[in-house]
Write a structure and sequence with these properties.
elongated; mainly alpha; 109 residues
Length: 109
């Protein structure tokens, strides 16, 4: 069986437990950041709708600006998460991100 990366299931390398836990921790932190920003948006729209009607610039009200800001923030958080969770072993010698002991000195599997 072949997965979408082109590697067979048998030759796939899984990350060590501590790396998976670190990546999960990053995910929870970024989810919490986004949840707080979104909760503020919802609370402002629910309890202070007049505040969201304010027009700070360019004739666009604050709720539109905040909404687009949430979309941009989600993309930024996803990019930062992806960057933080990239393999630490990925180098020119080890482009497939194999664990160093599995990759050998020359990076070949």
């Amino acid at each position: 069986m072949v997965d979408l990366s082109g590697h067979s299931v048998e030759e796939r390398q899984f990350e060590p437990e501590h790396i998976s836990q670190r990546n999960a921790r990053y995910g929870v932190i970024f989810f919490t950041i986004y949840l707080i920003l979104y909760a503020i948006f919802v609370l402002l729209n629910t309890f202070w709708p007049k505040a969201m009607d304010a027009v700070p610039f360019a004739g666009i009200n604050l709720s539109i600006i905040y909404g687009f800001g949430l979309i941009v923030m989600a993309l930024v958080l996803a990019l930062v998460y992806s960057w933080l969770c990239r393999g630490v072993n990925r180098t020119a010698e080890n482009p497939n991100n194999l664990p160093l002991k599995a990759a050998g000195k020359d990076g070949a599997a």
